[in-house]
Amino acid sequence: MAIKCNGCENDIITQDFMKCFKCKKFYDLPCLNVTSTVFANFSSEYKEKWLCPGCSRPKGDNSLTPVRSTAPEASNNTTQPTSNVNMLRGSRLTASKSEKDNLDIKSLANEIRLMRKEIQDLTQKQKTEIPLLRKEVADLSTQLNAVSTTITERLGEFAKRISDQEREILHLKASLQQSQAIISAQDQYLLKNEIEIAGVPETENENIEHIAMVISKRIGVDLKNEDLDDVFRAGPRRITSENPAHPEKLPRTIVVKLVRQTKRRELIKAAKSRRNLTSEGVVNAPPHKLFINERLTKGNRILFREARLRARQNGFRYCWVKDGSILIRKVDKSSAITIRNLEDLDKYLPIPKASQSETS
């Protein structure tokens, strides 16, 4: 069912209309002189409490006053409002909305002006600070370059100093090795007239000079008292820990210091031809196998022991001592090689790889 406008008596064909809260009458927008834009801004609460022009006038009775002229031209569906329709509320609302919009526009314009001012201030500040910042960066770059140059120069000085120190260390190391070799040779030279007899059991009240002469006679060398400079047992007494309840004293080596080197060579040569020499008949004790060798310094004894071990590992048939020098030979017809120190040992008798892996 169509709804008729109480202002113009025409059917309301759109959804945009107003209903009076009091009299429940309907009015279309043209009769109220309200545009669609203004109508869209009306709140729901305002639309529900809206009063028509007749109900908004509490004073006097204007029920007999026609809302619209009854002239024939008024029956036309015109969009112009009649002079009898009160449009005060719509006009006030429109004016209020317009004022609010104007205030919003003014506030927005003010904010835009403030933003422009801030941008201008920031731009001016940047124009002032950026050159200063660039100058500071340039100064910092110059300082860094200077520091880098100084560090490079100092590193060069340190590198040169380290290189000089390394050369000095190598020189000192070579000098030390040479000095050690000289001292070792001198120490060994002091033992040029001495031999060692190992394996002779120790007894109480023994006469080791007599023992030395008996052993020399056993190998075919006539040794007299005037050939002897000194005879003694070397080192402190030694015992074995195999049987702690009854420790067995290990015999110390007998050192025979001769007056002449020729007699020492004679004894060494004679001892090499008698490999199975024992202490039987020499001392009143169970027989032990005897060994007669040149006397070596402690360092040369360790070097000789290691040389014999490595000689077997590297397939060398001979390793011996002659006049305090350690010599090795691979086969009968090859030349003898002198081992003076550990460097020579590593050079001519290196540790086999299998032995190195087992040691590691």
Distinctive features:
single chain; 360 residues; alpha+beta; Herpes Virus-1; Alpha-Beta Plaits; 4 domains; four-stranded antiparallel β-sheet; three-stranded antiparallel β-sheet; 9 helices; 13 strands; rod-shaped
Question: Would you give an account of this structure?
Answer:
With 360 residues, this protein is an alpha+beta fold. The chain folds into four domains: 3-86, Zinc/RING finger domain, C3HC4 (zinc finger) (Herpes Virus-1, 2-Layer Sandwich), CATH 3.30.40; 89-190; 193-295, L1 transposable element, RRM domain (Alpha-Beta Plaits), CATH 3.30.70; 297-360, no CATH class. It has helices spanning 29-32, 36-40, 44-48, 88-190, 208-218, 261-272, 298-313, 342-348, 353-359; strands at 3-4, 11-12, 17-19, 26-28, 194-198, 228-233, 238-239, 249-250, 254-258, 291-294, 318-322, 325-329, 337-339. The two termini are 111 Å apart.
